[in-house]
Design brief:
It is a single chain. The chain is of the alpha/beta class. The protein contains eight helices and 18 strands. The strands form four sheets. It has a six-stranded mixed β-sheet, sandwiched between helices. The protein has a five-stranded mixed β-sheet with strand order 3-1-8-5-6, with no helix packed on it. A hairpin with a 5-residue loop joins strand 5 and strand 6. The longest helix is centred in the middle third of the chain and has 15 residues. The radius of gyration is 31 Å and the shape is elongated. It starts with 6 loop residues before the first strand and ends with a strand. It is found in: Cytoplasm. InterPro entries: G_OBG, GTP-bd, GTP-bd_Obg/CgtA, GTP-bd_prot_GTP1/OBG_C_sf, GTP1-OBG_CS, GTP1_OBG_dom, GTP1_OBG_dom_sf, OBG_GTPase. Belongs to the TRAFAC class OBG-HflX-like GTPase superfamily. OBG GTPase family. It holds the Pfam family DUF1967. One of its GO terms (molecular function) is GTPase activity.
């Protein structure tokens, strides 16, 4: 089994805030003792941190649930509970994080040490010391902690490379990578020897350096799932230049120009924006007897079928085996890299404006529906959050919750929908009777 994994779906849960406390001063010599219950501590965030030592999302295959600690409860003597430490999750460079439910990109983590909070911890609930007023100097009210954010995430690893090698299987991409870098990819005389992306660093004779990724071979129909399909094409999205490697010897009986068209069609089918990247055509295996004549025919077809307004891609004849033409190819690649900008992977429509929403301010405070047993069901982010943070063990807190519902307009809305005295009203698993 390959130890390379470039996609994963995980669940993250930030810590809940600690509950506030109801307590009173009871010292023997302190008259008129008042409330003394402290606030709960903040729940821990779930934080992704880029670790340049990681190369795969393999760790997320066996651990798919990440839960931060909750904050401590408030204590007597007005002492606040301790906030929980953040849960740090290490991810490799080039990890894109999406919300699995909406498909929106939360962040693109590409710099070593970069941090991003993917789930925010809840704030601590207030203790009764916070609710003291001149009218109610000894309140028996406290809040439960705010629930931590919980979400399902889709992770995608797109390796960081300046240059991507593409082409049919067995055209010599892995061999080329092995001679221009210190990478040691598996090389074999059969299709799909390369089943995971390989990465290597190139240093030219002039001192320039850049990263090269060798991607598993494409075949015609890859965009429809043939062969390895588009399983690894995501890794070319970060590259700025594509080296299109072609077997100019036609040793497998294919026409080099048809190979060139077929691979470009698969790139375009996967992501049209890949065609924006400049390409250099690498005419490989020029040490073979038929290669020179095939290259001549290839150039004629390329010129004949190219739009006169488009710039013809550069063609470099090489032999990975004899190392012929490699220095010229690498110098030209470095020169093209210098004048090629980075390509923006995601536009604004794909990105979430903010990483965290407590609730949408424009959304209705509550919604009313009817259950099968004729009970009225109240739902909505604002209402459910208010419900969760209410301590129903205290009668004062229950009365406060009832007043808050009335202030939100719940009573009037139920009455307008036809609710009658004694009707059952449900919030989650909590039930109470409607009083008209």
């Amino acid at each position: 089994m390959s130890m390379f994994l470039d996609t994963a779906k995980i669940k993250v849960k930030a810590g809940n805030g600690g509950d506030g406390m109801v307590a009173f001063r009871r010292e023997k010599y302190v008259p008129n003792g008042g409330p003394w219950g402290g606030d709960g501590g903040r729940g821990g965030n779930v934080v992704f941190v880029v670790d340049e030592g990681l190369r795969t999302l393999m760790d997320f295959r066996y651990n798919r649930h990440f839960k931060a600690q909750s904050g401590e409860k408030g204590m007597t003597k007005g002492m606040h509970g301790r906030g929980a430490e953040d849960l740090i999750v290490h991810v490799p460079q080039g990890t894109t994080v999406r919300d699995a439910e909406t498909g929106k990109v939360l962040t693109d983590l590409i710099e070593n040490g970069q941090k991003f909070v993917v789930a925010h911890g809840g704030r601590g609930g207030r203790g009764n010391i916070r609710f003291a007023t001149p009218k109610n100097p000894a309140p028996e009210i406290s809040e439960n902690g705010e629930p931590g954010q919980e979400r399902e995430l889709q992770l995608e690893l797109k390796i960081l490379a300046d240059v991507g090698l593409v082409g049919f299987p067995s055209v010599g991409k892995s061999t080329l990578l092995s001679v221009i870098t210190s990478a040691k990819p598996k090389i074999g005389a059969y299709h799909f020897t390369t089943i995971v992306p390989n990465l290597g660093m190139v240093r030219t004779q002039s001192g320039e350096s850049f990263a090269v990724a060798d991607l598993p071979g494409l075949i015609e129909g890859a965009s429809q799932g043939v062969g390895l399909g588009t399983q690894f094409l995501r890794h070319i999205e970060r590259t700025r230049i594509i080296l299109h490697v072609i077997d100019m010897s036609a040793s497998e009986g294919r026409d080099p120009y048809e190979d060139y068209l077929a691979i470009n069609k698969e790139l375009e089918s996967y992501n049209l924006r890949l065609m924006e990247r400049p390409q250099i055509i690498v005419a490989n295996k020029m040490d073979m007897s038929e290669s020179t004549e095939n290259l001549k025919v290839f150039k004629e077809k390329l010129v004949a079928n190219y739009d006169e307004f488009d710039e013809l891609p550069q063609i470099f004849p090489i032999s990975s085996l004899t190392k012929q033409g490699l220095s010229t190819l690498l110098d030209a690649t470095a020169e093209l890299l210098d004048k090629t900008p980075e390509f923006l992977l995601y536009d604004e429509s794909e990105m979430e404006e903010e990483a965290y929403y407590g609730f949408d301010e424009d959304a209705p405070a509550f919604e009313i529906s009817r259950d099968d047993d004729a009970a009225w069901v109240l739902s909505g982010d604002k209402l459910e959050k208010l419900f969760t943070m209410t301590n129903f063990d205290r009668e004062e807190a229950v009365m406060k919750f009832a007043r808050q519902l009335r202030g939100m307009g719940v009573d009037e809305a139920l009455r307008a929908r036809g609710a009658k005295d004694g009707d059952l009203v449900r919030i989650g698993k909590f039930e109470f009777e409607f009083v008209d």
